[in-house]
Design a protein that fits this description.
The chain is α+β, with helices and mostly antiparallel strands and 344 residues long. The chain has 3 helices and 13 strands, in the order H-H-H-E-E-E-E-E-E-E-E-E-E-E-E-E. Among the domains are: 93 residues; 117 residues, Glucose Permease (Domain IIA) (Distorted Sandwich). The strands form 3 sheets. Strands 1, 4, 6, 7, 8, 10, 12 and 13 form an 8-stranded antiparallel β-sheet that branches. A 3-stranded antiparallel β-sheet has the order 5-11-9, with no helix packed on it. The protein is rod-shaped, with a radius of gyration of 71 Å. The protein binds zinc ion.
Length: 344
């Protein structure tokens, strides 16, 4: 108040504007300087703030990018784990499949071995059977041969059987097929054998009575001193005669056996034969037993093979104790040697 009063007291001519001008002259410079400084500061601050915000934005972008990457990474990791789990599962399944397969293979091998063994055994049995069939065929052929060797079998002339069927040949590489083929063939053979055995059995039934009666053993055991056929007259001289039987030397009173079953048709003293027994065997076959000392049967007696019908001697035209043995077929003398087919 006092200052204002003082100034107004000095120059009253001074205007208000000039006063203001004078008053402001110095501070204005300061103000300008201050303003400049402030502006500079503000500019620097603004630039710095802008830079900072830019940096922060960049940082934020980086951060979000990083987070996105992290999420992606986690997703990938999860997927990888899932995949791994699946792979493990597949591997496990593979393993278990392998184990199952191995087990099945082992089982199959075992079965195969067992099967193979059974097949071997079966093959062996088949071969045994085949061998037996062959034996049977041989035995049958032997019987047929023996039957055919019998010199006189009325009604049975040369018994022939069908040729044996050979085992069929197969070239299959399959053992089962081969075996099956062989078995089929053997079955055919067995059937053929069976029917030929049936024929043989029928033949035997037919000739059984004939065979029982058939003169087929020696009447006595001894040395044959004279055979069947032409010979010098044993009673002396140089003439020859036909000998219708065999002379068998035996001690006196030896049992003279009937050589087959039959009926006595003659039992008496008969000229040069001495005491003679004649047996009818049927089928037109007769046997004669001469030079006996004693007769054990009478006409009409039925005798069996091996039965004693007389005691040996030297009656009739005889030079010593012996049996004159004759076989006649339909009245015709034949060589008795051929009829001795059985041993007693
Ligand atoms: Zn004689």
């Amino acid at each position: 108040m006092s200052l204002e009063t003082q100034s107004s007291a000095r120059p009253r001519k001074k205007t208000k504007a000039s006063v203001r001008k004078k008053y402001l002259k110095v501070p204005y410079t300061y103000v300008r300087l201050l303003v400049s400084v402030l502006l500079t500061f503000i500019i620097i601050l603004g630039v710095s703030l802008y830079r900072l915000s830019q940096y922060q934005m960049a940082e934020r972008t980086k951060q979000s990018e990083y987070e996105e990457l992290l999420v992606e990474y986690n997703r990938l990791e999860t997927e990888a784990n899932e995949l791994l789990a699946k792979l493990n599962m597949v591997e496990y399944k593979n393993d278990s499949t392998q184990v199952t397969l191995n087990r099945q293979a082992a089982k199959l091998n075992e079965q195969d071995a067992k099967y193979s063994q059974e097949l071997d055994e079966f093959t062996k049995k088949t071969e045994e059977l085949q061998g037996q069939l062959e034996e049977l065929e041989k035995a049958k052929q032997e019987i047929v041969n023996q039957l055919n060797e019998i010199p006189y079998l009325p009604g049975i002339t040369n018994l022939t059987l069908e040729e044996p069927i050979p085992l069929a040949v197969s070239y299959s590489s399959d053992p089962i097929q081969l075996l099956s083929y062989k078995l089929d063939s053997m079955n055919d053979i067995a059937n053929a054998e069976l029917s030929s055995y049936q024929l043989l059995t029928d033949t035997f039934e037919e000739i059984k009575p004939i065979l029982n009666n058939y003169p087929s053993i020696w009447p006595v055991k001894g040395k044959t001193t004279s055979g069947f056929g032409m010979r010098q007259n044993p009673m002396g001289g140089t003439s020859t005669e036909k000998h219708y039987g065999l002379d068998i030397a035996v001690p006196m009173y030896t049992d003279v056996k009937s050589t087959g079953g039959g009926t006595v048709t003659l039992a008496e003293y008969s000229g040069g034969y001495g005491y003679l027994v004649v047996i009818d065997h049927g089928m037109g076959m007769e046997t004669y037993y001469g030079h006996n000392s004693e007769l054990l049967v009478s006409v009409g007696n039925v005798v069996e093979r091996g039965q004693a019908v007389a005691k040996s001697g030297s009656t009739g035209n005889s030079t010593g104790p012996h049996v004159h043995y004759e076989v006649r077929v339909n009245g015709k003398p034949v060589n008795p040697v051929n009829y001795v087919t059985l041993s007693d």
